[in-house]
Design goal:
The radius of gyration is 14 Å and the shape is elongated. A hairpin with a 4-residue loop joins strand 9 and strand 10. It contains no helices and 11 strands. Strands 2, 4, 5, 6, 9, 10 and 11 form a 7-stranded mixed sheet that branches. The chain has a 4-stranded antiparallel sheet with strand order 1-3-8-7, with no helix packed on it. The termini are far apart. It is mainly β.
Length: 120
């Protein structure tokens, strides 16, 4: 019913920037919270950033001041601007939305993931 498509990952040198995007499509009535997670090999999935429906944000300590999450409600999308990237930011990044469908169901939907690799 609802799909998330991510884009924007890639390979970048330390100190560089990348911008990830995540767009939802399907039977969407509204989207509440939008989240970005990441998972490095051999590690647990980590919550990186959250943006609520009214625009308030929260970040993991490890990315505070370097990453910025934003949303475009008209486009059902979220973005994660990542600056001053470090090798320890290397991971697969996943978006996660809380969606209310046109049939008034509540769904938690995940993107397919996009790889970010930061070289030293």
């Amino acid at each position: 019913q609802v799909q998330l498509v991510e884009s924007g990952g890639g390979l970048v040198q330390a100190g560089g920037s990348l911008r990830l995007s995540c767009t939802a499509s399907g039977n969407i009535f509204s989207i509440n919270v939008m989240r970005w997670y990441r998972q490095a090999p051999g590690k647990q999935r980590e919550l990186v950033a959250v943006i609520a429906s009214e625009g308030s944000t929260n970040y993991a300590d490890s990315v505070q001041g370097r990453f910025t999450v934003s949303r475009d409600n008209a486009k059902n999308s979220a973005a994660l601007q990542m600056n001053d990237l470090k090798p320890e930011d290397t991971a697969a990044y996943y978006c996660n939305f809380n969606v209310r469908t046109t049939t008034r169901r509540y769904l938690e939907v995940w993107g397919q993931g996009t790889q970010v690799t930061v070289s030293s």
